[in-house]
C-alpha cells in the first residue's frame, strides 16, 4: 500500500511533521510505502478561476501541481496536515486546496459535484496544530482539511488536533495527542484492509 502524507508546514521538523509521523507509525511498522512531502518544496501558483479544468481532471496552470496530483492518484491513503495560521491552514495548503478545484466536476448543475476519488476507496486522516489551548482558536483548520478531503472523494477516517503547541517539537510532550494520532493511523490501515 502507498501512503502519502502532505505537510502544509514549512517547519520540516516541526510539530505538524511530528504529528504526521505518529499517524504514519502503524504504516511504517507494516512496511508500507510511505512518502511525506512538504508543500513548501513545490511551486504551486494560485488558482485563477479560469475554469480550464472544466470537463477534465487536469489544471491548465503549468507548475508543480500536476506532480502532486500524480502522487495523490497513486496513493491508497492520504494524510493532510497543517499548522494553524490566522485561524486556518497555511497559505501553501490553501493554494494546494484551491488548485484541487480540478479534482471535482459538475455533471448536472453547480449544486452537485463528483470528486475525482469518489468510489476509489482511498482513505484519509487529517491533522492540525494550534498554538492556543482552546480548540475554538484553531478556527477552521481541521474542518477545512476534513471537508476538502470528503469533497474530492476521500473517505475520512479520523482527525487529530494538537493544541497548545508552538515551539518546534512541543507536541512530543503531548502523549495523549500522539496516542490519538497513532490510533488514527491504525484505523486508517484497518480501513484499507477491509
UniProtKB/TrEMBL annotation:
A Pfam family assignment: FMN_red
Q: Does the keyword Ligase apply?
A: no
NADPH-dependent FMN reductase-like domain sequence ranges:
1-117
List the source organism.
Desulfuromusa kysingii
Q: What is this protein called?
A: NADPH-dependent FMN reductase
InterPro entries the UniProt entry points to: Flavoprotein-like_sf, FMN_Rdtase-like_dom, ISF_SsuE-like
One GO MF term: oxidoreductase activity
User: What keywords would UniProt list here?
Assistant: Flavoprotein, FMN
Amino acid at each position: 500500500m502507498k501512503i502519502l502524507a502532505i505537510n502544509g508546514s514549512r517547519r520540516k521538523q516541526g510539530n505538524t511533521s511530528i504529528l504526521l509521523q505518529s499517524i504514519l507509525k502503524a504504516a511504517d511498522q507494516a512496511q508500507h510505502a510511505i512518502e511525506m512531502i512538504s508543500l513548501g518544496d513545490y511551486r504551486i501558483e494560485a488558482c485563477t478561476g479560469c475554469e480550464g479544468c472544466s470537463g477534465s481532471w487536469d489544471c491548465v496552470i503549468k507548475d508543480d501541481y500536476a506532480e502532486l496530483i500524480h502522487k495523490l492518484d497513486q496513493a491508497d491513503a492520504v494524510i493532510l496536515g497543517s499548522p494553524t495560521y490566522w485561524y486556518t491552514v497555511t497559505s501553501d495548503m490553501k493554494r494546494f486546496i484551491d488548485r484541487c478545484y480540478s479534482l471535482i466536476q459538475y455533471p448536472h448543475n453547480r449544486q452537485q459535484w463528483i470528486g475525482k476519488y469518489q468510489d476509489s476507496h482511498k482513505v484519509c486522516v487529517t491533522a492540525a496544530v494550534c498554538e492556543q489551548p482552546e480548540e475554538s482558536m484553531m478556527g477552521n483548520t481541521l474542518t477545512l482539511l476534513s471537508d476538502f478531503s470528503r469533497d474530492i472523494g476521500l473517505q475520512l477516517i479520523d482527525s487529530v488536533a494538537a493544541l497548545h503547541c508552538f515551539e518546534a517539537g512541543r507536541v512530543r510532550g503531548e502523549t495523549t495527542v500522539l496516542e490519538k494520532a497513532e490510533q488514527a493511523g491504525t484505523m486508517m490501515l484497518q480501513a484499507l484492509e477491509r
